[in-house]
Amino acid sequence: MYDDAKAQALYAWHELLTNPEDQMNAQEQYDELLRLADNFREKRIIDPEERKTLIGVATLSYARAVEGTICEG
């Protein structure tokens, strides 16, 4: 059961990373990804190292999005 919950949680997180909601800007997406990572950790779905990895991936994605916005502007 634990593995199923973890797989579903990570799938949802990845979906938000790769397909943000239409109205969501980069900052909102980043905030939601961090919130989900914290929530998964609080529920003990992931461990602290996995949380750190998710936050790193979210941060890199956010930095790329912001960099793209600055370069286009």
UniProtKB/TrEMBL annotation:
Highest taxon of the lineage: Bacteria
This protein's name: Uncharacterized protein
Record organism: Pseudomonas mohnii
